[in-house]
Amino acid sequence: MGPLPPSADDRLIWDMWESQFRLPVATVADEVGTFRALGNAPMTTEELAVELKVDARALSIHLGALASSGLVDKHDGRWTATPAARTWLHPDAEGYWGGFLFRYRETVPMHAQLLETLKTGKRPENQVAGGPEWERGTMSQEVAERIAKFMHAHSMAPARGAAQQSVFGQISSLMDVGCGSGVYGIEIAKANPRLTVTLLDLKEMCTEAQKYVEDAGVTGRVHTAGVNMFEEEWPTGHDAHFFANVFHDWSEETNKLLARKSFEALPSGGKILLSEVLMDDDGTGPWQAAAFSLMMLWGTLGKQYSLPEFREILESAGFTDVQAVRTGGGYYSLVSATKP
Ligand SMILES: C[S@@+](CC[C@H](N)C(=O)[O-])C[C@H]1O[C@@H](n2cnc3c(N)ncnc32)[C@H](O)[C@@H]1O
Questions:
Q1: Is the shortest distance between the CB of 249 and ligand 1 below 6 Å?
Q2: pLDDT > 90 fraction of the chain, expressed in percent and rounded
Q3: pTM over the 0.90 mark
Q4: Residue having the nearest C-alpha atom to atom 1 of ligand 1
Q5: 100/18 same-domain check
Q6: Strands across the sheet with 173-177, in order?
Q7: Cys-Cys crosslink for 163: which of 29, 36, 187, 216, Cβ 3.0 to 4.6 Å?
Q8: Closest by Cα among 10, 18, 49 to 288
Q9: 179 Cβ inside 6 Å of ligand 1
Q10: What are phi and psi of 95, to 5 degrees?
Q11: Are 86 and 212 in a shared domain?
Q12: Domain check: are 114 and 179 in the same one?
């Protein structure tokens, strides 16, 4: 008996933590009138945002979660309430559940926070996610330690899944940009003994990553580089750049800047690789990506992107051959593209 080593499949844990969003995203929709509006007429996201007086970007993220919960549908760019929602969640329906669900607006704290994100398009004040910390470009060592620990737990299984991908056997030098604890770079190095890895992050985070590198016994092949990825020159000489859970922290515009910086620092033939949980092409799910996107809305400036959205971002920087494969047994995919 005792502890077991991690695998590449932690869906049981993901399903558990993401379930915190399932009820409040519906009680928020009930409160702002989504089911009445979409039960009466199909609407685009922008039309519905005007009708409900909410933020359109936040609404598109909320609608993805409602769609993957079976409460709204999307056809030809317009949203409608599903028959189930028109039966049980339309305020004029005989079977309306609002009288019961009403109490959870008060008792489930995430309700008020998601409501605020929807109305303002901004994350709630005073929450403890990492976004507000790293957006300043500097953080205390104590905060870096907390974020590294948080990200290490969250990313262990997907890192093991990504590390098995054959692309890492075809390169000799990788830079893991926005590495957090370094869990991805470390696992990829462990699975690919000929590979050297540079872990890039803000300098306080690199101090934390160095501890994880030492614990993993890969100090000879994995090194850290304390670099602000927006404000400083990137190290060169790598065959590939790897970003896990980094693009989902930022807007399309900021991601285009990151893609451009990557393109400039890579040699011809170099690869950009993104480990992300992908939304479906039409933004209606799956639930695991949609709930994660609510988390990004709640804690960062980003969201979960679809492959077509990543294609647009990466091609805007000059990358070609954008494709994605699922990795491991969890919900992550590896998006790849090449600098011609
Ligand atoms: C969501 S975490 C991802 C960590 C890791 N890749 C993972 O998936 O476990 C985002 C990381 O980006 C880093 N980051 C944010 N802004 C940065 C900047 N300007 N320069 C370098 N790293 C930055 C943060 O410190 C944080 O470690």
A1: yes
A2: 95
A3: yes
A4: 245
A5: yes
A6: 222-226, 196-201, 173-177, 240-244, 271-276, 333-338, 320-326
A7: 187
A8: 18
A9: yes
A10: -95, 15
A11: no
A12: no
What is the distance in A from the centroid of ligand 1 to the CA of 50?
Answer: 35
User: CB of 201 closer than 6 A to ligand 1?
Assistant: yes
**Cα–Cα distance, 262 to 271 (Å, whole number):** 9
Residue of 246, 249, 332 to mutate, ligand 1, most atoms within 8 A of C-beta:
246
CA distance 233 to 252: 21
- Domain span at residue 316? 131-338
Q: Atom 25, ligand 1: which residue's CA is nearest?
A: 134
Indicate whether 128 pLDDT > 70. no
| Structural domains counted in the chain | 2
Q: How far is the CA of 203 from the centre of ligand 1 (A)?
A: 11
- Centre of ligand 1 to C-alpha 246, Å, is 6
The 10 Å Cβ neighbour count of residue 28 is 26
| pLDDT band at residue 130 using 50, 70 and 90 as cut-offs | confident
Residues 6+ apart with CB under 8 A from 159: 183, 184, 186, 187, 188, 244, 275
